[in-house]
Specification:
By secondary structure, the protein is of the alpha+beta class. The protein contains eight helices and 15 strands. It has helices at about 10-20, 60-70, 75-85, 105-115, 230-245, 260-275, 290-300, 305-310; strands at about 1-5, 25-30, 50, 90, 95-100, 120, 125-135, 135-140, 145-150, 150-155, 185, 200-205, 210-220, 225, 250-255. It starts with a strand and ends with a helix.
Length: about 300
C-alpha cells in the first residue's frame, strides 16, 4: 500500500515506522527542515516521552482515549520504543524519559528507523490539497500532484504559539479546537535579570481571586516568563479553560521558600531589617538575584521594619 503521512512529530514518525514495518511504501511529508522538531523540545530537552500511569480520565474525551489505551497499553508502547532502540526510565511521578536524558537522541533513533525501513522523507514540504480519486487520493505535495492509497494527517495540535493550518486539507467540522498545553508561560513585565535562574517553589495559579490549582517543584525563570514541570502542569489548566472558551485574568503566585514556614521567614527578615541589613534580607535563603528582585519590587517598603511583616 502506498501511504502518505503528513507531519514529522511523534505520531507521524510512529505511524510511518509501523506502516513501513508492515510492508507499506511510506512517504512522510514535513514542512520543517527536519523531522522531530517538537520532540526535540519536550521535557526541556530531556524528552518526557510518556507516563507509566497514563489514564483516560486525564483527557477531555475519555471514551476515545480509553479505547486507544485498551488497544495499545503503555507496555505495548514501551515495547515499540525499545524496538526503535529507545530505552526509558520513570521518575517518582511516573514521567518516562529516555535513559540518555536526550530528546535529540530520541529523534536520532526514530530517524534511523525511517532510514532502515526506507521511508521516503520529504522535508521543507507543504501539502496544499487532498482529493479523492481512483480509489485513493490525489495530493498536491510540494507543488506537484501524487497519488496515494492512504493519507494520514498527523500534524498534531498547537503545542507552540503557531497554529497548524489544516483548513485546506480537512473540513472544519472534523477539527477540534486546541491550544498549547503543558508549555511554559509568558509573564507580563518579566524581570530579564532572572533569566536562567532555578528555584524550588510552590506555585499557585489564580483567576482573579479564585485559586485554580497549586503545584510544588522546580521553577525555571526565563526572560519571557516561567517554565519547569510545575508550571507546565498548571498551564494545562489554562489550556483546558481556553478549549472550553473560558477567559481569565490569570496570575501566578510563587512561594519561593516552601521549606520554611511563614512565621520563621518573617522573623528572620524582620530581624535583619531592624538591624539595618536590608540588602542582606534574604542571604542564605534565596539566590542573590532572586533576593535582589524581591527587594526591588518592595522598594522603600522594605526599608522600614514596620512594613517587613506585611512584605
Amino acid at each position: 500500500m502506498n501511504t502518505l503521512v503528513i507531519g514529522g512529530g511523534m505520531s507521524g514518525l510512529t505511524y510511518a515506522i509501523v506502516a513501513a514495518k508492515c510492508g507499506h511504501a511510506v512517504t512522510l511529508a514535513e514542512r520543517n527542515s527536519r523531522v522531530g522538531k517538537k520532540i526535540s523540545l519536550t521535557g526541556n530537552g530531556r524528552c518526557n516521552i510518556g507516563h507509566v500511569q497514563v489514564s483516560a480520565k486525564c483527557y477531555n474525551n475519555s471514551a476515545v482515549v480509553r479505547r486507544v489505551l485498551h488497544a495499545i497499553p503503555v507496555t505495548e508502547y514501551v515495547r515499540y520504543l525499545n524496538s526503535c532502540g529507545i530505552y526509558t526510565y520513570a521518575d517518582r511521578e511516573g514521567r518516562m524519559y529516555p535513559l540518555s536524558d536526550s530528546a535529540a537522541n530520541v529523534v536520532d533513533c526514530l530517524r534511523y528507523q525511517l532510514s532502515k525501513y526506507r521511508v521516503r522523507l520529504l522535508t521543507d514540504t507543504v501539502v496544499t490539497r487532498i482529493e479523492r480519486a481512483n480509489g485513493g487520493y490525489d495530493v498536491n505535495i510540494g507543488g506537484r500532484t501524487e497519488h496515494f492509497d492512504r493519507v494520514v494527517l498527523a500534524c498534531g495540535g498547537r503545542s507552540h504559539a503557531e497554529e497548524v493550518n489544516t483548513s485546506s486539507l480537512v473540513p472544519a467540522s472534523a477539527l477540534t479546537y486546541m491550544c498549547p498545553s503543558l508549555v511554559p508561560v509568558k509573564v507580563q513585565a518579566m524581570d530579564p535579570t532572572l533569566n536562567g535562574l532555578r528555584a524550588q517553589a510552590t506555585v499557585s495559579l489564580y483567576d482573579g481571586e479564585d485559586l485554580l490549582g497549586s503545584e510544588t517543584g522546580e521553577v525555571q525563570f526565563k526572560e519571557y516568563g516561567l517554565s519547569g514541570i510545575c508550571i507546565l502542569d498548571l498551564s494545562a489548566i489554562i489550556a483546558r479553560r481556553q478549549v472550553q472558551r473560558k477567559s481569565g485574568d490569570y496570575r501566578f503566585v510563587l512561594d519561593v521558600v516552601p521549606a520554611m514556614d511563614e512565621w520563621t521567614l518573617e522573623e528572620v527578615v524582620y530581624s535583619r531589617l531592624a538591624a539595618g541589613e536590608r540588602d542582606k534580607s534574604f542571604y542564605g535563603i534565596l539566590h542573590n538575584k532572586l533576593g535582589e528582585h524581591i527587594l526591588r519590587r518592595l522598594g522603600s517598603q522594605a526599608s522600614s521594619p514596620q512594613i517587613a511583616h506585611t512584605a
